Amino acid sequence: MRVELLGPTSVEAEDGTPVDVGGARVRMLLARLALDPGRPVPTGTLVDDLWGEQPPADASNALQSLVSRLRKVCPVTLEPGGYRLGVAAEDVDVFRFDRLRAAGRLDEALGLWRGEALADVREAPFAAAAAARLEEARLSAQESRFASGEPDVAALTAMYEKHPLRERLAGLLMRALCAQGRQSDALRVYAEVRERLAEELGVDPSRELRDVHLAAVRGELGPRPVVDRLPMRLTSFVGRDDELADIAATLGRARLVTLVGPGGAGKTRLATEVAARHPLHGRGRVWFAALAGVRAPEDLAGAVIGAFELTFTGDPLRRTGEGMARIAEVLGAGESLLVLDNCEHLVGAAAEFATELLRRVPNLRVLATSREPLAVDGETLCQVGPLAVPNGQTDVTGFGSVRLFLDRAGAVRPGFRLDESTADDVRQICRRLDGMPLALELAAARLRSMTVRQITQRLDDRFRLLTSGSRTALPRQRTLRAVVEWSWDLLTEEELLLARRFAVFPAGADLAAVEAVCLPDPLYVLTSLVEKSIVDTVEIDGEPRYRMLETIRVYADEQLTASGERREVVARFRRYYRDLTARWEPLIRTARQLEAIEVYEAEQDNVLAALRGAIDDREVELAADLLGGTFWYWLVKGDNERAESSVRDLLELGDLLPADFRATFRAMQLIMAAVPGVTDGDEVTAVIESCVASGAVEKYPSLSIALPMLAFLGQNTELARREVRRAQESADPWARAGAEWAMSFILADEGDLEGAERARDRAYDRFTAVGDRWGSAMTLGMKAAFVSQTGDHQAAIELYRRGLAVAMELRSQDDVVQQRWRLAVEYARMGDHEAAEREIAGAEDFARSGGNDQLSALLDYAKAEVLLRAGKVEQARALSEAFRRRATMSSLLSSFAEEWAATLDARVALVGGRFGDAAAFTATAITTTSDRADMPDLAGVTELLAVVRDAEGRPDAARRLLALAQVIRGRLDLGDPDVRRLVDTHGEPEPLTITKTEALREVRAEAGVD
């Protein structure tokens, strides 16, 4: 049972449950007995202390009645000397306060107070004197805390104003003011105290206060120099503001905090900065013990003693115990912070040392750094990882890794800055060096003799490159190799085996992959590597995924080569990812699509490494299986460049490849190259027939879309229809959906717009039924474009938004950006320019976050159209020029560049009143669209030419061109406000009875195209 008197009187049972004591007089009795815990109090004393000069008529019976009521909740006994409360002194907060105060544990002592002492029993005759004594003890403890702590002028002033006659308090306030350089304020306090003492008490200030006054007059109490026992900080601290705040907060709660992380992460520098900013540093109560040079556990105490600049002699076998006593003596003189740096090679001894020291010194806090935890009770871990690195973002100035590199680069090469000539190299250095501070500092040091581009080009040989560390640093911190070797040397044989084999995973791995490739039952060894900061973990859907920092992986890969195990480990690695992609590839086209994409996203670099390795080693069947297992994922995610390069490299193996694979991926290669134009018809036919003859059409569902579209782009409509029919009869429901999707293109090109829309509806329903979001999103985009041409902008926007939502689920950057910029253009066509600009801005942010220059170029085009619709001609002109430059350099957009830029330039010239230029630019666009026989696009530029002719004052030509556009597409684009204006002005064009070929020829003639 505990009794509390430092505030309202209260009682708690052993389990902490509050006990209801009863009425005021019972609480008075409890309080009086608790002031003499465990000792009998005479009945006469109790009567006097409870009732004073007016006791009740039968005082003995009244007291006995109170005791009876108190006994119901507290152990009270009658003994020869009086009544005794059966609690120990330690169970009464008054006596715990006295003990803690005597031990110098002032914060804990003062923390026991909950208000004024005996607050609810002050009417009792004994209470006033007892409360005054306790309040005096409290004030004295507060003064002692101020005397030993950091000068706090605000708190001292507030306390002084409540107790203006306390001379010690006035002296403390004077010292605090002087420490802030406020000597005149301190002298004013002295004058006030002297005057009050004379007026109210008729005395002079004490000798102690006069001494403080004299010291203040002499200027002896100015700001005290800080005793700095931390390592010299010769460079600025960059990039870890959040960690600083978190660790400082953690040190406020926990007595042992360990910064854990890999070598080179900057643990020592971070710990030093935390210690330098800690309040105890300003009071000279911070010590730093560097343990990196300590080799034997028994030398640890001696190393700490050395950091304290103390010495001790005697029997070497007794030095640890004596050293601990000396250390505890120094640290126990007040609140203290001890930094134990680099504990990993002495982790057991460091754990015992820290535990014993914390036990001996209650006011001590320990901040340790290590590559693995000390693993003791009460330890709080703070993980120290790499600095944040850019991942494709355009603006990288806010990333910690970039800030650190630029800071250190500026020190060795004044004037070095981030601009167009250096940004890409700086981004690459920060990313490839994992954002590790030591590696970045070593790389920046190379700028003394290299350009930033030369550094980037040599990162594959990073251990030779990064060797320019400080000559005053420890040997293991002067080169990147030495940093890694220090950690490597601390591993057991089993840990070394797993660590070097793990190097085959560039993207890390889950437990199943590690078990299949590296080591049976690897969990305990793997977790040990995590503990030692060789491997780290991220959690994906509740399951851990393990990975190595790239620098550690490069070193581990060297060790794998040296071990002679590389061939067998790599073989297992490639087989594992062939089997994994074989399992998951079919699911990309099902309701488990998102689950499959998550697997591919996590494993993509591993799959690519297995594929590239198999190609390089001419493991033909394995390479074919790996490409077949990941190609469709690349297309769904819009990773066209990777898909094209992998197909090209594998097809170079020629006849070594299986016939069905060779035919399929030659078809894929052709269709990727054909967009947006046509390709050689004879080769298209030959490749399609090879896919049929080899049985590829039964093996690869993607051909249900690829072959009809390839034939369509090759202008062989009959062959395209044949392949659509073949796919429509497939047993695979996804293939049947793809067939309808391809059919919608054929019908739209032929002008059967209603038939095309029915095919799209069937495609959408079937893609939705099988759960393929990619097919659904594409189809929704096509349906939105169709609806837009009817002039129903709201319905089109709704469809675009549905397509965008599906694309967001897929996390397909290409599809998200395209859906969003088409949405922006639709808003602009509707006249809602504010919404259009908002959507473009959102698309730009999304593209910028992924660093996709190709998408950024597309957005220049879309933004220019949005700006034109809003009448912002000059801004649109600048974006048109930017699009032309960027699109010309893009591998995918280069074939579009001339056509799209010409269309954009024509619109800019038209709004600017330069009708001749507008006609010339439109003629260029008509040339390219008609050459590749793209009827929907040709209809669009024909309508643009009609607008130009109308602006030139040639309404008859404008009406004829509208009629020709109607023949080519099957209808006019009434969602385009310019076309709608022409129709409103000149009426609906009369239907023509000519063929599309004749209409095309007439359009070219009108445009002046040969």
Automatic annotation (TrEMBL):
Q: Which UniProt keywords apply?
A: DNA-binding
Q: Which positions does the record tag as DNA-binding? A: 1-87
Molecular function terms in GO for this entry?
ATP hydrolysis activity; DNA binding
Q: Which PROSITE patterns match?
A: OMPR_PHOB
OmpR/PhoB-type domain span: 1-87
One GO biological process term is:
phosphorelay signal transduction system
By its UniProt entry, which InterPro entries does this protein fall under? AAA_22 (IPR049945), BTAD (IPR005158), HTH_77 (IPR058852), OmpR/PhoB-type_DNA-bd (IPR001867), P-loop_NTPase (IPR027417), Sig_transdc_resp-reg_C-effctor (IPR016032), TPR-like_helical_dom_sf (IPR011990), WH-like_DNA-bd_sf (IPR036388)
Q: Name one Pfam family in it.
A: AAA_22
Superkingdom classification of source: Bacteria
Family, as annotated: Belongs to the AfsR/DnrI/RedD regulatory family.
Protein name (record):
Predicted ATPase
State the organism of origin: Lentzea fradiae
